[in-house]
Amino acid sequence: MCPKDDHLTSAFLAAPFEVGSVPVRNRVILAPMSGVTDLPFRQLAWRYGAGLVVTEMVASRELVGNTQESWARLKGAGLKPHVVQLAGREAYWMGEAARIAADNGADIVDINMGCPAKKVTGGYSGSALMREPDLALSLIEATVKAVSVPVTLKMRLGWDENSLNAPEIARRAEEAGIQLVTIHGRTRMQFYEGRADWDAIRAVRDAVRIPLIANGDVDTPEDALEILRRSGADAVMVGRACQGRPWHAGWLAGHAAPARGEIAAIAVEHYRAMLEFYGEHVAIRHARKHLGWYLERFAPGLPADAKVAIMTGKEAETVARLLQQALNDTSFASAPEREAA
């Protein structure tokens, strides 16, 4: 459990903890982000020291139906612990998908009740389940019953400001066998607007004894310690701050970030790993968001025509060469980075 406020230091973020019987090497977790935390991204985040990395959301019914995309999202490629996040609305499919995940190497199964995307909530999954706690509990019970590995739960404060029911759902989830809860400090209706309410997460801490992870707007080590202090959580989860910086979760946990001169090589390695994972035709399209994040963070002064050439290029080797040139040229970096370089 989280120590008293006056003992919260960076050493706490670097300390291990456990999810059930599964050891976790530190307390800074990479958030599952659909379309972002695919296997190439997770491998980089793990190499640079993230405490846990979690798959993109895997649709339970599609996994049982043996779709190519769901199996691609399931892959762990030897990353341990392997955490698979499942989404769905029907207990049967969630249980069956959990069995498949565990049979294929999942050390932890996470249930998605936090995704705010309309295409997910429109199918009454993700954070939409927080409007139907009894249904949500049936999914939790089916998932826990289906596997022997720990099952965890990720959700928001509630659907909207009039239904902040995360503490009650968390309490019932713990009784049903959930072994860790993650709370994003916003409601579904907030999406990612405004600031996450770190204080509101405290009510979930008061409702459960299992480990609690706090999520939302964590960018700096100071943020990480402050969200722990205000929420009483045992660990932090970081998502959008890692976009364009797959090493960022590890850095928050005390690992060294790459030097400015190494970033181009990491970005190109990331791009090539995506080419290998997806095949060139698919990867070029999937990689563009990542290339954009690298350029926004480390080459914000890149001329528009040069950025367009990278972002719309259809020849992989040309894109890789232009990306490396752009990130290696510190004249395109922000003023503080130019001075550091």
Notable characteristics:
341 residues, alpha/beta, TIM Barrel, 2 domains, globular
Give a written overview of the molecule.
The protein has 341 residues and is of the alpha/beta class. It folds into 2 domains: 248 residues, Aldolase class I (TIM Barrel); 81 residues, no CATH class. 45% of the residues lie in helices and 12% in strands. The radius of gyration is 20 Å and the shape is globular. The mean pLDDT is 92. Belongs to the dus family. Its EC number is 1.3.1.-. Keywords: Flavoprotein, FMN, NADP, Nucleotide-binding, Oxidoreductase, RNA-binding, tRNA processing, tRNA-binding.
Question: Brief overview, please?
Answer:
By secondary structure, the protein is an alpha/beta fold.
Order of helices and strands: HEEEHEEHHEHEHHEHEHEHEHHHHHH
The name of the CATH topology of the largest domain is TIM Barrel
Placed side by side, the strands forming the largest sheet appear as: 4-3-11-10-9-8-7-6-5
CATH architecture of the largest domain: Alpha-Beta Barrel
Low-confidence regions = none
Give the N-to-C terminal Cα separation. 41 Å
Percent helix range: 40-55%
Radius of gyration: 20 Å
Dominant shape = globular
> Proportion of β residues?
5-15%
Strand count, sense and closure of the main sheet? 9 strands, parallel
Which helices and strands occur, and which strands form pairs?
Blueprint: H1 10-14, E1 17-19, E2 22-24, E3 28-30, H2 39-47, E4 52-53, E5 58-59, H3 60-64, H4 68-74, E6 83-87, H5 91-103, E7 108-113, H6 118-121, H7 133-146, E8 151-156, H8 166-175, E9 181-184, H9 202-207, E10 212-215, H10 221-231, E11 235-238, H11 248-252, H12 263-278, H13 280-298, H14 304-312, H15 316-328, H16 335-340
Parallel strand pairs: 3-4, 3-11, 5-6, 6-7, 7-8, 8-9, 9-10, 10-11
Antiparallel strand pairs: 1-2
Helix pairs in contact: 2-12, 5-7, 12-13, 12-15, 13-14, 13-15, 14-15
